[in-house]
Design a protein that fits this description.
15 strands; 30% helix; 13-stranded mixed β-sheet
Length: 326
Amino acid sequence: MSEEVSIRDARVDDHDDIRSITADTWPDRDGGDYLGRVFPQWIEPGDQPKRTLVAEVEGHAVAIAQSVILSDHEAWGQGLRVHPDYRGLHLSRRLTAALFDWASDQGASVMRAMVFSWNVAGLGQARSSGYRPTCAFRWVHPDPAQSGIASQYLDDPERPYLPASVAVSVTDDPKAAWNAFQGSAVARALRGLTLSLDESWAVSELTPATLARAAEETAVIAINTPGGADGMSYRTRTFEREDEDGDPYTVAEYGVAVWEEVPVAAALLDAIAADAASIGADRTRVLVPETPSHVSDAALLRAEIAEHPDFVVSADLTATERLSRH
């Protein structure tokens, strides 16, 4: 079978094959695979360099993967799918290796990817293809319709064991946001990675330039206490979805949420909810590190929390063992 497989660039006329590949991606999970629906748009050229490859057998695409260049040294891998009838033939490894080579040729020194924590097969596939564990995060969803509610929990006289509220101020200063991020427990837990402004469902290294750009294009939130900048976030994008009844709603997405203490978390979640409400968003999703303190802080403040975390994996494109194969 391996002699019959060829690796080539994806084409728009592969759409029917991609629908077949993604028809039953996660048979034991609710919801379908977005890739079969959006494939023609997904492979269109964009602002970021990208390459989409398929494995072809007897004239049909049976596996697919994509890499996108996020910065001068970072690449992102996504959309790796293999038709159920062709699993076990190492097609994912061949596609990933080809995209590692392409990304390296573009100047990238690292390529990362995201895998749902419940996707055991995907995790094993990623590790066998050369990725290594990097960090984990979870989505938190403060409600735009209830901005201010998190801080109210800290003032509840029936719950005297909660931390006392502290004086905070909210600004849109990207420098203050950077000060809150660098050196924080969140930055350490996430290895400095937060959501990309350019590519959805992708993380890249946060820099002061990222926050300066967000201040101009979307929004930056910095939480200041008497001790300095102690919390931050920034909005990455908004997007539209439909609920189970087909009614549309708008989601505001935030690249990270940084806090050390519960009162700062309350102020930050309230500020995120207020920002989302100000642009007419119906829902939010906010990236927080998968740590006991951050997840339980959000739970304490009654924020909706995703059921499962997501994992980020990374491949060093300069590794000697990889380069020695070429």
